[in-house]
């Protein structure tokens, strides 16, 4: 018997005995249960249960003779049916995990204390991938407002697909998101679409050279651009400090009030 084929069928959801029975039928054609048991190694006391299970799943067909004989369904149809069933099982498991994840997020969020004091906490992430992961985490945690300050709007972290998806989610939740920059030469249609969705964008004559993002007036992320690749981040430093956030928030608001609305059709 072809053990490799039996192992592949087992990966698609058949038991070891079911896989051995199907492969034996595929190799030898129609067989009685006793003959199949002798050839496949499936115990005689189990062979009828195994064959009936394969018949129920439309992988094997049985005639009405005495003794009854069994034959396999063509491999293409059989594998398609196994794959469809396996995918359905995985989708059900995914849905179940998503429900558990939603409950866990709600429960754990309720445990988080309110941060209304000035005591600070800082963490950092080094390297482009780790830095983007930290930014994504902080965007996802925002509840009320996000304010982004950059000099040049490039194709870097602010407008990568993951960040765009997070901004879209924030806007859908009613979170206020503002972007302040001086150079929009590299702005794309993606930015225009986000503006249509509610993103507020203004053009300033000047902004601080250090790129930063304010979250909920409580937290600040400072971005450090990689000097060897200006579309990558070298690091992100996250300060969860209300006093620092309040100070930068006042600076942002002052620059925002003096800035002009961004005109997508302008220079």
TrEMBL record:
Residues 121-260 form the DUF7436 domain. InterPro entries: DUF7436, TrmB-like, Tscrpt_reg_TrmB_N, WH-like_DNA-bd_sf, WH_DNA-bd_sf. Coiled coil: none annotated. Transmembrane segments: none annotated. Residues 9-75 form the Transcription regulator TrmB N-terminal domain. It holds the Pfam family TrmB. SUPFAM superfamilies: Phospholipase D/nuclease, Winged helix' DNA-binding domain. This is TrmB family transcriptional regulator.
């Amino acid at each position: 018997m072809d053990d490799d084929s039996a192992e592949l069928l087992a990966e698609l959801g058949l038991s070891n005995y079911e896989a051995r029975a199907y492969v034996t039928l595929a190799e030898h054609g129609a067989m009685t249960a006793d003959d199949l048991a002798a050839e496949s190694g499936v115990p005689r006391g189990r062979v009828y249960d195994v064959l009936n299970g394969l018949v129920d799943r439309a992988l094997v067909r049985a005639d009405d003779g005495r003794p009854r004989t069994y034959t396999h369904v063509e491999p293409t149809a059989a594998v398609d049916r196994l794959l469809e069933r396996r995918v359905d099982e995985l989708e059900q498991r995914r849905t179940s995990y998503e429900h558990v994840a939603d409950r866990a997020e709600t429960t754990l969020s309720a445990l988080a204390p309110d941060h209304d004091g000035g005591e600070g906490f800082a963490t950092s992430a080094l390297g482009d991938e780790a830095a983007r992961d930290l930014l994504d985490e902080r965007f996802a945690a925002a509840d009320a407002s996000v304010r982004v300050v950059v000099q040049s709007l490039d194709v870097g972290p602010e407008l990568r697909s993951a960040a765009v998806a997070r901004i879209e989610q924030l806007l859908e939740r009613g979170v206020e998101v503002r972007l302040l920059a001086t150079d929009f030469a590299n702005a794309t249609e993606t930015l225009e679409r986000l503006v249509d969705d509610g993103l507020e964008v203004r053009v300033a004559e000047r902004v601080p050279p250090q790129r930063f993002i304010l979250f909920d007036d409580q937290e600040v992320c400072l971005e450090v651009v990689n000097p060897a690749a200006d579309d990558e981040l070298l690091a992100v430093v996250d300060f969860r400090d209300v006093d620092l956030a309040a100070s930068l928030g006042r600076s942002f608001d002052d620059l925002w009030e003096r800035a002009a609305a961004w005109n997508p059709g302008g220079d």
